[in-house]
Queue: 4 jobs
Job 1
Amino acid sequence: MKQLAIIGMGPRGLYALERLLLELSKQQLEIGLHIFDATHCPGTGTVWDMSQPDSNWINITERALVGIERRQAISYAGCTIPEFPSYHDWCNYDQGFYAPDTFPPRQKIGHYLNARYMSIAKALEHLKTFQSYNEEIIDLKPKGERLDIIGNDKQWVCDALVLTVGHQSTVLSNQLESWTSHVAKYHTPQLFDATYPITQLERLKNEMEITVGIRGFGLAMIDVMRYLTINNFGNFKVIDPSTFETVYYKTQAQGLKIVPFSLDGLPLVPKPLNEAIDVKYQPTDEELEHFKTEIEAVSQSDSAVSHLDFLMRPIAQISARVYLELKDEAQLHHLNRSELESVVIHWLKHEDYKHHLLLDHKTEVYQQIKTYTGMALGDTLVSLDYCIGQVWRHCQPTLYKAFSHAKVDESIIKEVIALDERSKRYSYGPPIESMQQVLALVDADVLNLDYVNNPKITLTPKGWNLENNAETTISCSAMVNSVLDAPQLLKVNTPLIKNLLEDDLIQPIHSALGIETTSEGFVKTPHKDDDLAIAVLGRLAKGSVIGVDAILECFGPRIETWAKAQVKRLSSN
């Protein structure tokens, strides 16, 4: 009997298991299934861990989670795996067109994912060919046509394997390396080189007097900010439910100061309040089909391409049409469609491009947040960059599908990913309430945005001195790194990936990207005529695929393609 291992049982591993079982049932094929997961709650991974605090929110609307569909019942090896409801049915989702979108805590999604996995495990619990191990896998070794799976003190053998391990830690940057050495020398400063688990920061949140620096100004920064400030001394209160306008109130005095900073100091941009506002940025079906055709004409062709016009041009066409149709809700202008398209392309090429329809980056950060929040609420005239960002979000699923496994030069793949990453300030933006909390904390003199734009940092025996362009300084005795490591394969420092690299079992598609895989998810190596029996789905394959960070991508067609191909391989061997 063939043996297959799934290493990593987060949401992507969960869907891989489901689709595999479905394809096996179609072929009436039974195999040995081995599930390896190092966490305590299978199905969730670390991102959706059920034990994390409620202050960690998702940044995708519950409305958009319609993409997590029901699982049909599966008959496998004499067992019946019951159907499992879609996320919307599971949580009794019911929201009106004009009602504000909801953004629940991440642990709520975790409870759904874990329940979905456990329904499989329970159905197969008496099946000797289904085994689950709470183990970290540190190495894989070819053994003839099979693979040895090596844990810390155990070993297994399999015929095929899929890696769905998600985020992996990487070697520390030069800056973090120097900070680590500094803290080891002086002991007094407190450094947290990763954000999660966020409960590690518990000892900071109720300090009477402390200034905490946060390296990064993105979604993880908001999690840190919220966790630290919902404490024994204060909390948030929404004073206007229609706009989520918020105040931070203190029940007793506390000298907590939070000082975030990043390389560009640009704030996150909140998503639209509700479906009624969001639908205005929605491309038509015809526009999305044209967008897909334009991308695929390049990505699936062997013709050389040296620029991103194939991506920017259709985005500009959709954005210009949307902006014109906003009419009185948009900034006043007299540009026609082609002129608007030109502005969009200029901005996509150069983020610092200036135009009166684009919100000026040099505007005070606090005011930028207020202005973007007003746009999200439908209360402020919409800038063109806000419009582009929301259009990009709606185009992302099509882009991710059409450009994955592109045949273009690796440098073009890197540029597409870089542009998509730049868009995420808008397209992966947080709920309005999160940005209202940022404003509330500034108003309460808890959050300090004076150093947000690339401050000069000096290490002192007591911690970190931050200096801004106005030459004012602030001292931090604690520092939290909230910058998430990029999936750059050559910098990953977890034992499994390092060992696979050293043994030439995997290779990056580009020095700054992830593992090179086939369109079916199987690893490519330079030394073998045939692909290995190792598949990689998800974040570690960034470059071969794009769009690896969205939860909806965990339940997408890439996993279905892999499952069909994997069962075909198992059946033919």
Note: The chain has three domains: 3-164+554-572, 174-268+431-481, 275-427.
Job 2
Amino acid sequence: MTATALEILKTVYGYDAFKGPQQRIIEHVIAGNNAFVLMPTGGGKSLCYQIPAIARPGLGLVVSPLLALMADQVAALRQAGVRAAALNSDLSADDRQTLWRDVHGGTLDLLYVAPETLMRTDVLERLGGVKLSLIAIDEAHCLSQWGHDFRPSYRQLDAVVARFADTPRMALTATADEPTRAEILSHLAIAETDAFIAGFDRPNIRYAIEEKDNPRAQLKAFLKRHDGESGIVYCLSKRKTEETAAWLREQGHDALCYHAGMDKAARESNQMRFQHGEAVVMVATIAFGMGIDKPDVRFVAHIDLPGSIEAYYQETGRAGRDGLPSETLMLYGSEDIALRGRFIEESDAPDQRKRMERQKLDALLGLAETAGCRRQALLAYFGDRSAPCGNCDTCAEPPRLFDGTTSAQKALSCIYRTGERFGQAYVVDVLLGVENDRIAQLGHDRVSTFGIGTEHDNRTWRAILRQLIALRLVDVDLAGHGGLSIAAAGRDFLRDKPTLMLRVPQPPRARRDKLARSAAQSSLADSDRELFQALRAKRMEIARTQNVPPYVIFHDKTLIELAAARPASRAELENVPGIGEAKLDRYGPAFLSVIADHA
């Protein structure tokens, strides 16, 4: 590795060595080559283009999808002493003029720009007269129509490739299956030999998936382990985000909501509060979060089923970007499965796209229903491998299975005998032989399946039906009243009678009580906690003075290192990872003073 790159790593970012494949990628790009980089969130993707942009002559151009993300990264780079700026529609005429003067004057290392802005004729013409060190396209999965977050504006970037053919280009993402990767390489004319696949594993994240039992009680128990920490709660609808945020505030949490239907100013205000706060819960739809650079998100909860494994991986990946222990929870039920299926069928997408979306939903349901290691199943979807991780709910408490062949036959027969038009609760009542006016009025107390399921309780039958829906043996008519009907695969099952192993539902609180507390402070020794909180308070004080998020001053990980090492001089402070020269000069005395007060 060239001394220049290592020097940049140490002096700007405060680290002594590269991690994973960073060294090979940076070397490759500094030499003038193209690169496709697939690296898990928190793996250091940004350094892979920032360091070559600083090391190579010219301006590094970074294409990024969101204004908030660009502002975040520019703020962090400036704190580290890097000359960075963002070109966006929010700039005033004077600020825009100043920015272009800096661009043409060669006083910037990195310029961030959204794809829509970059593709404007006047912007491309102005950049045509500028020497570019590289072009980096972040969140590159947005370019692929097979990706979970396709954005048409990204497809137009083909023209940038043609216009700046001799400039090294990079495509970077944390989420791309094989078809998505192939499409990115093709459109950006990057050779397969220039692809660097670093894997998908995020070992610091704990994965847990539960059947919906009492969603608010489940969420409350989950959040109890995260007092004083920031996190995200994802919901499927705008209304649900607002109701859940209001309920969480009643429970004592500093909770905000975020969805596309909100006033723009309110959305931006809530996002800023989340990014600048240290114990804020954001309740949001998927409109929130792509590329969010907040490293201290300690938890992500889905109280509704995501759309695919890619979406789940991307959204859970917003937890623990700093590498510290973080936790995720996904809740799902039969209604979620049916609603997601309805979204696919009612979309105006071509049949090929619908088939692909159905396959993606099936893969997600397979992850939810697996009796094996969650991480193994998640990584296998992306073609990656892992041993059982020991850091997911199924590793902590492997689910029990039972031969559900007869139970499935009873459930399917009951659906058939009652006319394939009633919902889950009614079918379960018939199976259990519940005597009520409605069942008697419809004559279903006289069908052969009335009362044949008393070997299971109500909750177990609901879990069985949910698994039959997930296995595509049962369809749900959400356009009507949620009536259950036997799918084609269900009819085949009744005819062929293959053995069917199903999961035994756990008691509602068993799994949650057994999960260990997950928090950044779990990395702290008890003797260091008081100093850590004092350092955190000093960081917040400085951040508020500058109106920047606390993490652009120092990450929690750096504060933990400071609390443990307790440096007493500038020379000792230099040895703490994550403190470059600019931050050493700017903040060293203030933090050394806090440490001295706690000697």
Note: The mean pLDDT is 89.
Job 3
Amino acid sequence: MNLKAPKGIDVESWFIECYRRHKGHPLFILFRLYKGNYNKFLLAVIFFFIKHAPVWVLPIVTANIINDVTGNSPNLHTRIIIQAVIMIGLILLNVPMNYLYTRYKSLATRYCETGLRKALVRKLQQLSISYHKETMAGRLQSKIMRDVEAVETLSTQMFLSILNIALNITIALCVTISKSMLVFSFFLITTPIAAATMVFFRNIMKKRNNEFRREMEETSARVMEMVELIPVTRAHALEEEEVEKISGQLFTVAEKGYKLDIIQSLFGSVGWAIFQIFQVVCLAFTGFLAIKGTVLPGDITLYQSYFATIVNQVSSLMALVPTIAKGIESVNSIGEVLLEEDIEDNEGKYALENVYGEFDFKDVKFGYNNSESHVLKGLNLHVNKGETIALVGESGAGKSTVLNLVIGFNFASEGIVSVDGHNLEEIDLRTYRKHIAVVPQTSIIFSGTIRDNITYGMEDVDEETLSKVVDAANLRELIDRLPEGLDTMVGEHGGKLSGGQRQRISIARALIRNPEVIVFDEATSALDSISEKLIQSAINNLTKDRTTFIVAHRLSTIRDADKIAVIADGKCIEYGSFDELMALKGHFYKMKSLQS
């Protein structure tokens, strides 16, 4: 049997709908997540019942044999042999039943686990860039891995372990009530004590689990950040300071974990002690009943076994409370992402078939969330098809904000940004972005080969096209020098490559898409003069006959731009070619003079 989604169910959409419909009710959510797999759980329950039969039957067989022996029953040997054979058969049946139980239980729970992770991954791809900038990657990673695993564990406990507990207790009580109402009444005394113990600790456990989960997310994010900063830390001899900083966070997690451990330990030990005392009392109680002749001597073992079963099952239920509390907290944690409404919604919007590259910014204002001031304060700009536009200005002037508006990462608070006469807010950005390429300031290289990084997201790229792209991006010398050429592994984040090499790979990745619109965000700002020259040559190859937006601090790199837009105080204050702006002797002239 394959692990796959039930027929007719859109997994990710269904999970998100479950959270939205039952918001605030994690157990309802958990139950609905398994739609299409209830039959597997039912089969798992049936096989579970059969495989556990020896546990329920053995006390009855034991009591019967003792009673037969002490009562000198007729056909004693035959009765003992028959009951022994029945027990051996049930014990042997446990093996295949356990396999079938595990098979169907795992198919259901693993499907849900995989589906939840897919739903989270899809939702992360839909959430806005602003959301990702404001949320630590470590927290999101923790939700996808740790929280989903906790939900899978919760599923097993809720649907199977608790069912096992309920079946064990029910059968024990039913057999007991059929033999002695007096003993049954004694058994019932333990139930209120178990309930009282669980209620007492439930609220404390919920609070501690919540605190611990948040500290773990925070620690995961801090550790990830620390690992990424190791080259900077080592370069400035800040190892001890970084160790101290992370140690403080680790001790905070340890403290939260310690408090959680103490509560869990206290919870378990108090419950265990209470029920062990009652078990001893039960032994003495049934012993006195046997002396009086109220029950048979063999029934002492029956009642003692079933009482032990009830004690152990209620204790198990109590022990499950921390796991259930943790799982419920993880259900809510996953819901924080799946119910997040800060998404990029493209459904039902106009789909672009072609992009020519003519842009208009009309009275554009833009401000980031939780900020009262605007970064752009009435920007007006027209870019013709095929033009290369350089954006210059002081740090914080709004240059990168303009690029984010071009890409569609952000929308104007006021005014209109349009491409080919279409308002960007009214088009399906996925169809638009198929025609653009972005080369960021910090090259994003993933683990894999150079070929993988250049052809990322593209299929069936022929060697001739790839070779032309390598030449245009000035990567030929590098590729020829490497033993495995394009199939050389670049290491994590491209750690085996220099900054200039990584940037040229980014340019090759953009070039192979043959885009109509290109966005460069300070592509040469952190490179040496030789690398900058190679990059600039690659950029010139890439920008031919394509609408291009370039942000650059080094003004010498934008001499060949068709137009230069000087951004200051959220507006375009000067606009023209390099020579025109130099002749104007305004703001751009002063900036160029300072860099000379």
Note: The radius of gyration is 35 Å.
Job 4
Amino acid sequence: MDIRKITDEVSVAPQLLPGDMAAAAAQGFRSVICNRPDGEAADQPTFDEVEAAAQAAGLQTRYMPIVSGKVRDEDAEDFGRALVELPGPVLAYCRTGTRSATLWSLSQAGTRDTAAILAATRDAGYDMAGVVRRIVNGGKTPTDTGDAKFDVVIVGGGAAGIAVAASIRERKRELSIAILDPADIHYYQPGWTMVGAGIFDPATTARTMGSLIPQGVHWIKSAVAAFEPKDNAVVLDGCRVVKYDRLVVCPGLKLDWHAVDGLVETLGKNGVTSNYRYDLAPYTWELVRNLHEGRALFTQPPMPIKCAGAPQKAMYLSADHWVRSNRLKDIDVQFMNAGGVLFGVKDYVPALMRYVRKYDATLNFWNNLIAVDGPSKTATFRVSEPEKESHEVTVGFDMMHVCPPQTAPDFIRVSPLADAAGWVDVDQSTLRHTEFDNIWSLGDVMNAPNAKTAAAARMQAPVVAENIVADIYGGAPRAMYNGYGSCPLTVERGKIVLAEFGYGGALLPSFPKWLLDGTRPTRAAWILKEQILPPVYWKAMLRGKEWLARPEKVTAR
């Protein structure tokens, strides 16, 4: 038997034989549903034969034959009722298991998240892309015929999405462009580190989405449920369908708070905070101001994460405050890093290590946060050093700044656009999808091996815009992305190590070394971060003004 588990209560399988029934019962199944009509193939047993063997094994049965490729809405409803009426776990079968998996998917529509349904069936080996619109539509066959259509559709209204929309508009204003995003507020997330240090007011990092959408660009305030790239369609929540000639995918990534046991329940209290959330960054500053003694933990999960330096930025700025208030001698600073290095580009590590020593911070590599007990103020880490057996350690804390694990959004991971790890699969130079020629991606969600930062998106937006316009005119890609990313590492109030680098860790400084040496802490980099970059973000990047971001042209060979 090739039994494929979908949930704890439902599994599906290709054709089952009477001789399989005893084994199914032995594996704990209590009911069997047959979704294959009798006589579909000459070598197939009849349902009566299977039923007799099932009853002899103590299994209940249900015959619900479905013609291949013709699962009706009422069939899915009947299947859902059967799952309620029959004792579980239930094993359903047809010729390959696809009809049974389809029936389950449609029966669960409206009660389970679409991405969860697609993920469960995908993990069992079944692709439900063909019925995704019905799943989104509550298990019903869509009847809509008046779907919207645009020259360019952009999924995501964050830094990457608005920037690329503005850059495309600057190049070809007559195009019809739509941004799909359900959010009301747009955030300048690089500013939250400064909020957590009491330097920025939180309100300065937020603006209404409507005020930022470029003039002439349509804003469809809806979440994306699924992609149908072969039909040039995006399916929205509610089963509305938006068609496109060209698609740009940049919804950012998912902060997976639930991946750490107990974390969600204690965030914002019990001394547990994170600068990765707008509402929690002020709590970071409250904790820093009020901590006079004890242990402060700063965690970093496995890569990839957005702004890989942010977890240690929180540590440096907090410790700097404790130095200035003469408290550091009574505070034990611990950096708990799931990786094995302080920073991925070695040229910047010496300057950072000087501050690690200055703040007497202990570096704990290969320590991945897996659980938090807020009331008892303890955190559990899995320690996984190379070539050593992993083990768990529990550490007490008085304050803990958490960087959550991060993944691609669920609707991306289960889509035809994703690679095996769940990220949008692109050519790392042109940012064009490796399979679908009319799809591009930028920002945190795509799989190019670059740092996931707003500075990277600032460089990527013109590249994607340039290449989309080239494609419209029938030409080959004419701009390339060199992997540029920037991480202003705030090592103390008033000084920053400005890390700028590209693919392979190559240094890509924006300024001459005599003006700003990024490998050492400088006041100039602090001024850039505090006073210059926010206006550049709001007034240039999101408006298609490509200051210091002109795309590098493809050279003929």
Note: The CA atoms of residues 423 and 446 lie 5 Å apart.
